[in-house]
Amino acid sequence: MATATVLLGVAPGTPPAAYVSVAAFGAGYTAMSGVLIVWAVRVVPDLAAEGTVVLFIALAVGQAAGSVALGVLLGASPVLAFVVAGALGILAVLPAVRDPAAAGSRRATR
After folding, report:
1. How far apart are CA 102 and CA 67, in angstroms?
2. How distant is the alpha carbon of residue 83 from its chain centre?
3. Separation CA 41–CA 54 (nearest Å)
4. How many CA atoms lie within 13 A of 29 on its CB side?
5. What angle do CA 32, 12, 1 make, to 5 degrees?
6. What is each CA distance from 52 to 34, 45, 105, in whole angstroms?
7. Is 9 exposed, middle or buried (0-12, 13-18, 19+ CB in 10 A)?
8. CA 78 from centre of chain
9. Mind listing the pLDDT tens digit of every residue in the chain (110 residues)?
10. What backbone torsions phi and psi does residue 58 show, to the nearest 5 degrees?
C-alpha cells in the first residue's frame, strides 16, 4: 500500500502508473481489512465482534486525521504529500517487522 501511494504521487498524470497504484492499494487495503478481523478474533476471541469494531473505528479515525494532515501537505507539494503518506505507511508496520513473534503472540488478558 505504501509503494502504491508513493507511485501515485511520483507519476502524476500517468494512466498505467495510476492503474497499477490503485489496484495494488485496493488489494492491500482489502487484505489489511481481513488481517484486522483475524487479529481481533485472535486477541479477544470472546469479544471478536467488539474487537473488530474497535479496530475499524481506529482505522477510520486515522484515515480522517491523515486526510486532513496530508491535505495540508498536498497544497505545498503533491509529491511530498504522497511520499510522506507512503513513509508513514512503512513506519506503521515496522514494529511488527522488527519482532514478528511478539506481534503474533500478544493476547488480551482479563
Report:
1. 31
2. 14
3. 12
4. 12
5. 10
6. 10, 10, 18
7. buried
8. 19
9. 888 988 888 888 899 999 999 999 999 999 989 998 998 999 999 999 999 999 999 989 988 998 999 899 998 998 899 999 989 988 988 887 776 565 555 554 44
10. -60, -40
Distance CA 90, CA 101 (A): 19
> Residue 54: which of 12, 108, 11, 110 has the closest Cα?
108
Distance CA 84, CA 103 (A): 25
Q: Which residue has the cell 474497535?
A: 54
Q: DSSP assignment of 27-90, as one string?
A: HHHHHHHHHHHHHHHHH-GGGHHHHHHHHHHHHHHHHHHHHHHHHHHHHH-HHHHHHHHHHHHH
Q: What is the pLDDT of residue 47?
A: 93
* Whether pTM exceeds 0.70: yes
AA letter at 49: A
pLDDT at 22: 92
